[in-house]
Amino acid sequence: MTHTLPALSYAYDALEPHIDTLTMTIHHTKHHQAYVDNLNKAIAGTEAENMDIISLMGSISKFPAAVRNNGGGHYNHTQFWTALQPTAGGAPVGALADAINATFGSVDALKEQMNAAGATRFGSGWAWLGVKDGQLAICSTPNQDNPLMDIAECKCQPIFGIDVWEHAYYLHYQNRRADYLTAIWNLVNWEELNNRFEACK
Length: 201
Ligand code: MN
Known about the structure:
Blueprint: H1 21-43, H2 53-58, H3 65-83, H4 94-104, H5 107-119, E1 125-132, E2 135-142, E3 157-163, H6 170-173, H7 177-184, H8 190-200
Helix pairs in contact: 1-3, 4-8, 5-7
Bound molecules: manganese (II) ion.
């Protein structure tokens, strides 16, 4: 299949002041577009051309680094955009809310652990909330890896991945990754995350 850049359901300035307009514009039209374009180039004429992105992640060890990096980049950013929403934030909903309280004790504890996973990821990568063996779990991956990849140290069904590459926050937050991580919870689309959690059951 030929992969395409998904349109955002909100404007580039809609996540202000937490994520600035220029960052959103460059992140979507340049970074994510490049992952899509380079993924399509890397899979052209290979077995990977016939696979959807989820199947590709699950057998990524069979393919070259360009497929891993750009395929991961495409999957990771696609789930990121739809996990965010203007005028969002607030409290988790539904079965996910219950699972968060049961697993972490509180939403604040979840945020703390996830922000720690993002803050301690050296260099570029992602912090993840996912479902592993029926339980919520938090981990992080380097570069554009993700927990769906067969090579991942932390395998789980992703619910929410936070981009901690500098390109995700540097224009507005510079070196203050922790401030970006704190701010991003104002944008979390809990309805969407709960839907993802329900789909894991
Ligand atoms: Mn990114």
